[in-house]
Amino acid sequence: xxxxxxxxxxxxxxxxxxxxxxxxxxxxxxxxxxxxxxxxxxxxxxxxxxxxxxxxxxxxxxxxxxxxxxxxxxxxxxxxxxxxxxxxxxxxxxxxxxxxxxxxxxxxxxxxxxxxxxxxxxxxxxxxxxxxxxxxxxxxxxxxxxxxxxxxxxxxxxxxxxxxxxxxxxxxxxxxxxxxxxxxxxxxxxxxxxxxxxxxxxxxxxxxxxxxxxxxxxxxxxxxxxxxxxxxxxxxxxxxxxxxxxxxxxxxxxxxxxxxxxxxxxxxxxxxxxxxxxxxxxxxxxxxxxxxxxxxxxxxxxxxxxxxxxxxxxxxxxxxxxxxxxxxxx
Length: 330
Ligand SMILES: [Mn+2]
Hints:
Blueprint: H1 5-17, E1 20-25, H2 31-46, E2 50-55, E3 72-74, E4 89-93, H3 104-109, E5 114-119, E6 131-133, H4 140-150, H5 157-170, H6 181-192, H7 197-205, H8 210-220, E7 224-226, E8 231-236, H9 238-244, E9 266-272, E10 278-284, H10 290-296, E11 300-302, E12 305-309, H11 314-326
Parallel strand pairs: 1-2, 1-4, 2-3, 4-5, 5-6, 8-9
Antiparallel strand pairs: 7-8, 9-10, 10-12, 11-12
Helix pairs in contact: 2-4, 2-5, 4-5, 5-6, 5-7
Bound molecules: manganese (II) ion (MN).
């Protein structure tokens, strides 16, 4: 923690001494992105700041309860950039890659006064005081808990709930590798504020639409196994999403299913969004570093969860990724 005190101090002072903020997070925002945005929004609001939340993509329906005063906006839905954008500071949460915030990069970051990044994904960049990356943290929400603690910001029920969502989501309900005693200690504090774990579970994991279920069935039927059944590959095309009447973001968790089989060590998921942009997501168990593969294609992530946007057509990129995984299974 001491290691980060300078950055905590810098960010705290910066926030206290400035008035206008726009909060954003990565494209197709997940539970940790929305949870941390919601918590940061509440914190800045309570300090009397002028604050907006703007994302490149809309959030999944199940997270909308964290948008407590209907303040979340989506860039592509005709969001009007403030005329005095040069007076705003952009706070980027849950990614340290400015190419991972969609149109926000060009439309807001490039025109804003300054930016602050708070994230827990690995990065190789040398960072300045405005960039706080704690790659041992389970989630961005865990970092925000520390930051709020640092500036003695009193966490109320709404903030506690938002932080809890991010932690539950990013730790796979307290089981992924970065889940530590500290994660549980923070969870304990948040639950002590009145957060109901069962209610959060049900909102996040038991509120899918029937179209999401149909989408899952279709995508599962594309499953192919490679290298002695150690690698699973699934594919989702934009036509499939349309056929099922589902949404792109409803495919979020499909990648995790193959890993429930003992033999499967890597799950690869190629998914196309409605504009036909192809993304490759990878999850692994054990020692296989999928972030290293993602980085080769200008993507990023963690050892066990990473991804990238593909510049190649599906068959070509699939072949390239499988080739890179081959070394692990000889
Ligand atoms: Mn995260």
